[in-house]
Write a structure and sequence with these properties.
323 residues; alpha+beta; Phosphorylase Kinase, domain 1; Aminoglycoside 3'-phosphotransferase, Chain: A, domain 2; 5-stranded antiparallel β-sheet; 10 helices
Amino acid sequence: MPDPAHFEHWEDLRPWLVELGLDGAVPVRRLTNEHGAYSPAGRWIVELDDGERRFVKAMRARAVGRHGVENEHRALELLGVPWVAQIHAWRAGSEQHETPSVLVVEDLSDAAWGAPLDQARADGLRRTLDHVATVTPPGDLATLTAQEPFRGCGWPRLLERSRAIVELGVVDQAWIDEHGPALADAATQVDCSGSGLVHGDLWLQNWCSRGEHAVLVDWTGASIGNPRLNHAWGECGVRAAGGPAGRVLAPTEPDHDAWAAWMSGLACSFVAFDDFDRAEHHNLHLTQLREACASIRWACEAHALPAPASLAAVEARAGAWRP
């Protein structure tokens, strides 16, 4: 039996294809980490005997991987269409028997993805996130803490290790010395704890548009916390793609400014303290760089701060958003 911790080839899933109704499926495309996002899962678009297509996601049975795809399955069951993709098949993995968890859902390739983003699509994302905020999540998901839901991320660490973000050019040392403490203070007004469903990775790569709604994908980081985190993350992603600002989280909303400061700390931490080879995952690095730049511009706009002098050059180097 193939090692279930690695899914480099479709044939790695052969022992479980009949069980999933995929014994005659032919892989059309394998999604890799060079599409601007990282995943430890094997991901394929496959074509069935009748010409229908499915999206298949298989995750390692060990450590957090299996639990991640199980989280995703629970979120999809909870929310349902039109907010998420339709489930076609599911098998839970077993750490004891080292078998993978495999999720089979509808293929969303024909939906509208990424840039360009117009007002209708941004409003559709807001509509979906407003719905997500009304649901009660499964009680066994991870629970976010109030101030540091993503360990090691945020303005306190950026201020302690400012060289990491300064070397990337997103900010300069003089700027972070002068304005970083104010953003760190503003970010403390955010409380990420709560009882709502949080997506946990709501960048532009993880949602598409269909009709009047956004369809949210990749729920492996689902958790329990403040669902306003979804709106803040979505707003930052829309801005990173050059979409209409203020449609997902409006400047008139009372928590807007605090979330802008908090998201800038998160996005800048992701790119400054990444743990992957930037040359090997070049597209992912550029994606994170765009997101960090957009988050800083958003925070500066919200708090009436000057943009870092180095920011424009980094934005030009990163280029426009692309999948």
